């Protein structure tokens, strides 16, 4: 839609009585079937989505403010506002609202939100019919006017009628003329009455009255009236402060007179609200909501006008980055941008996005690098505030700039390193600035806000950059304050609290409170890295042996610092990463923790509880490697601690694991012995089979016929199951013995001894005969009715069988595989 008259911004009032921007669109009025009435519709100009659908209710009080605002309440604590781009569009929609409600468009409020009982009370009040007739604006009638103004504040409809009367008769300007006369006459009583009158008029909460009172020719007199509070012995000097002390500084001359007037007005009105007016009571907190809205929309207009003036911003940035600019001038420029960014918070999201992108394109980040390195504390503080606005709005914008910086030999010039150094060098004893900067750094390195689908590599690239160029700057104070110092024997004293008997050696550990606070901030950031940067921080910890250095701080006299060091180790163990566990075990890094526990004695404090929780976690999660290390190395020192069952529980876990390992080893040995027994039982079975065969041979030829007849058939079925080709059997054809039985030869090869025979192989009884060369050949004699055995027998190669197997192998050189079995021809 190209009609700019209907272009509006939609606002809602939040719980903090601040207006939230819901978007920009175009407003229209139409009948909505679902709502059964004429409704206001606002569709977003970006995608046409519905921003607002509100039925014009006959009982809703709509209020017109500043010619371009329409404000109303749809439900309890839910206020809405439409801010029009043009007055004509506001008038058009206002007429439609008044038409639906049957009201006169000349009114600025369609009706008052009052109940029937108040209307009845209103009708019973005889003086209400005379509200439109104000007393003459004279010195003698000031007390009467003050009583009238203060008496109507409890009734919305009476406030409305009084506001109309004040507007219609130009009464405000007449009252201000009386103020000047009273001040000239030093009429304190009259001045006190005027204070009550002006304060009451402000509490009428009417935008039309504000437009008059805050105009250039009236606002200073309004401030003057508010100086004469009857509760004060001497009047305040607010006008003197606004005209002499508070000076308007133009870092770059503003040529737009309307913009200048709007800036002056906003500052003075903000001063009235924050400084002059007393804090409203619970019953008065809504009396100044329109004043808050007045300031809010003024700020929006100021930012929009400045942003549209490209020449102004370009000139500001040119002077800010110019090396020839004086420090005092640069200080003013930085303070200007701080206020500019603060005002930008009133913009709607898409406009705020464009605002910060404009600043980024103009070079705000390179400028911050310069000013954050200046010695002026005020400039650094203002630059930090600007940087915080940028980081909170778009961390990706800052990260993108940082990675595009040229990689110079000196890493200190990088913006993030400048921020880290400012955090480290904070001169505030409470480290207020350092805490703020640490929060900004955490936002920048948080992977949770690096998951934008438009740039999937941002996380990997930025973290690699940070650990390569910035991490060493962050950890420098930590490493410097935990340096290891060798003793006379050249041994490292770091973490060694009980070396050589009972001699206690304290390694280097900071005792300065401010240094301890700084190290706690660094540890907090490193702990965050352990939780969120699995790969990069792990490599850094291992390469720098960082945990060992951190645990030096367990000796600090500042308990909060010792707890920070312990929390760092707790996060590492909480990952249950065996890589970390092996590192802890190898470095014996539980020693300083256990020493701290023992040094703490029987004191029941946070350090004691935190250490016990660490070991309780290891026990509950059953981290076997750490449990074994703790019990093996430290249980004797810990077994006396009986007020908790943690360490006895660790011992129990340790014993259970030992029992399981012992049982597992026993089963392995049992299995091995079973395989050995099976191999030997095979020989016993073969010997028994051979003896039975000899008995059968003595029985004569009774079984011979059946043996000759049945064996080939049964063995043929066996060979069919094995699916062995006929041609492979020619090597080992059986030969008929003189007794009529069949004989074949096979070898117990090394492969068979190692269990490589097939699953379907069967044992056969055998006899040993000596061949011509003295080698042993085993002849297997099958019984008359052969039985196919399908059980699996494991064959294991044992050293005591090697001699026998060597003899067998010499006899059966032509047999190449233990898987070959005797074949019978047809």
From TrEMBL:
<dbReference type="InterPro" id="IPR006887">
    <property type="entry name" value="P4R3-like_central_dom"/>
</dbReference>
<feature type="domain" description="Serine/threonine-protein phosphatase 4 regulatory subunit 3-like central">
    <location>
        <begin position="144"/>
        <end position="656"/>
    </location>
</feature>
<feature type="compositionally biased region" description="Low complexity">
    <location>
        <begin position="749"/>
        <end position="777"/>
    </location>
</feature>
<feature type="compositionally biased region" description="Basic and acidic residues">
    <location>
        <begin position="718"/>
        <end position="734"/>
    </location>
</feature>
<dbReference type="InterPro" id="IPR011993">
    <property type="entry name" value="PH-like_dom_sf"/>
</dbReference>
<dbReference type="GO" id="GO:0072542">
    <property type="term" value="F:protein phosphatase activator activity"/>
</dbReference>
<comment type="similarity">
    <text>Belongs to the SMEK family.</text>
</comment>
<dbReference type="Pfam" id="PF22972">
    <property type="entry name" value="EVH1_PP4R3"/>
</dbReference>
<dbReference type="InterPro" id="IPR051137">
    <property type="entry name" value="PP4R3-like"/>
</dbReference>
<dbReference type="GO" id="GO:0030289">
    <property type="term" value="C:protein phosphatase 4 complex"/>
</dbReference>
<protein>
    <recommendedName>
        <fullName>Serine/threonine-protein phosphatase 4 regulatory subunit 3</fullName>
    </recommendedName>
</protein>
<comment type="function">
    <text>Regulatory subunit of serine/threonine-protein phosphatase 4.</text>
</comment>
<dbReference type="InterPro" id="IPR016024">
    <property type="entry name" value="ARM-type_fold"/>
</dbReference>
<feature type="domain" description="PP4R3 EVH1-like">
    <location>
        <begin position="5"/>
        <end position="101"/>
    </location>
</feature>
<dbReference type="GO" id="GO:0006974">
    <property type="term" value="P:DNA damage response"/>
</dbReference>
<feature type="region of interest" description="Disordered">
    <location>
        <begin position="681"/>
        <end position="826"/>
    </location>
</feature>
<dbReference type="GO" id="GO:0005654">
    <property type="term" value="C:nucleoplasm"/>
</dbReference>
<dbReference type="Pfam" id="PF04802">
    <property type="entry name" value="PP4R3"/>
</dbReference>
<feature type="compositionally biased region" description="Acidic residues">
    <location>
        <begin position="798"/>
        <end position="815"/>
    </location>
</feature>
<feature type="compositionally biased region" description="Acidic residues">
    <location>
        <begin position="683"/>
        <end position="700"/>
    </location>
</feature>
<dbReference type="InterPro" id="IPR055236">
    <property type="entry name" value="EVH1_PP4R3"/>
</dbReference>
<feature type="compositionally biased region" description="Polar residues">
    <location>
        <begin position="738"/>
        <end position="748"/>
    </location>
</feature>
